[in-house]
Design brief:
mainly alpha, 72% helix, three-stranded antiparallel β-sheet
């Protein structure tokens, strides 16, 4: 009896330890953290702020590349048949970089940052995003624009050493304008990641900061409008779609979503023309839905 009790106790303890081990290992397997550093050597047009902006974009690029390499090796992502570039583009709309340390000595800016990604969650988000043509296009557009701005500023930085007077000042202004655009896109990325996670209020705050810096960023108005729509604030969503269309008159997705917003508040007089306009521009989702419901002809 005594021996059986000891055996039973040891058995229970072993089972508990085994379950605990599985739980801990599951958590370890699911979350992956990537850490990268970047050092930026400031040019004559750079301040602490501009140096930080470039450093942040560059370290995030390095982090996304490493995360992309990791995800590319997983069986689930292999089944999606995506290139590494496509994986990197999609993950930019899912995860955010967190700054760990940063230093500025007046000449160089050093920055250390990390991305912590829940493997299962990221893969699910990639699967969802890759099936949404509109979102894929948006992320591709932002990545191309960001890469182009970084390359242009690298060239401008080299040119500044040999330019004088008016040409010099003009180049400095263009350099700083590009930095503002990069800062706006950093806030846009934060908003996009928040929206993807379902945090629409947080996304609105980030998109608003992007718009404050770059008032002609149609994509930020459009996505802030989508966030307002998801919160049931249709009037504010319509206002943002108006701004997106004002900046980009042939913005099919904005017409589509504005039409959907009008139809959601039973305004077929404005909703149907918008939905039809979007369809004429190539996006027919709202129009086809409205026709099935017999709201529009």
């Amino acid at each position: 009896m005594y021996r059986r009790s000891i055996s039973y106790s040891i058995g229970i303890a072993s089972i508990v330890m085994f379950i605990l081990h599985l739980t801990l290992c599951y958590a370890c397997a699911e979350t992956k953290t990537f850490i990268k550093e970047y050092t930026f050597i400031a040019g004559e047009a750079d301040s602490k702020l501009t140096s930080r902006t470039v450093s942040l974009r560059e370290v995030k690029r390095l982090l996304l590349e490493e995360l992309g390499t990791y995800l590319e090796s997983t069986t689930e992502v292999k089944d999606f048949k995506l290139t590494k570039d496509q994986i990197i583009t999609l993950t930019a709309g899912i995860v955010s970089a967190e700054i760990m340390e940063e230093k500025w000595d007046g000449k160089t800016y050093w920055l250390k940052a990390k991305i912590s990604a829940d493997r299962e969650s990221v893969i699910k988000s990639i699967d969802k995003l890759r099936q949404d043509r509109q979102k894929v296009n948006e992320l591709e557009e932002m990545r191309k624009r960001s890469d182009a701005l970084l390359k242009e500023n690298e060239q401008l930085k080299k040119e500044l050493a040999s330019l004088k007077d008016k040409d010099h000042e003009k180049t400095v202004q263009q350099y700083k304008k590009n930095i503002d655009s990069l800062t706006a896109e950093e806030w846009f990325d934060k908003g996009y990641a928040a929206a993807t996670a379902g945090n629409h209020s947080e996304a609105i705050d980030a998109y608003t900061k992007a718009i404050d810096i770059k008032p002609d960023l149609a994509l930020a108005y459009y996505n802030r409008g989508a966030a307002y729509y998801n919160l049931g604030q249709h009037s504010r969503a319509i206002e943002d779609y108006n701004q997106a269309i004002r900046i980009k008159p042939d913005y099919a997705d904005a017409y589509n979503n504005r039409g959907a917003a009008y139809l959601s508040i039973s305004n077929t007089t404005k909703g149907c023309p918008d939905a039809k306009k979007a369809c004429n521009l190539g996006i027919c989702e709202a129009y086809e839905y409205a026709k099935r419901k017999r709201w529009c002809r």
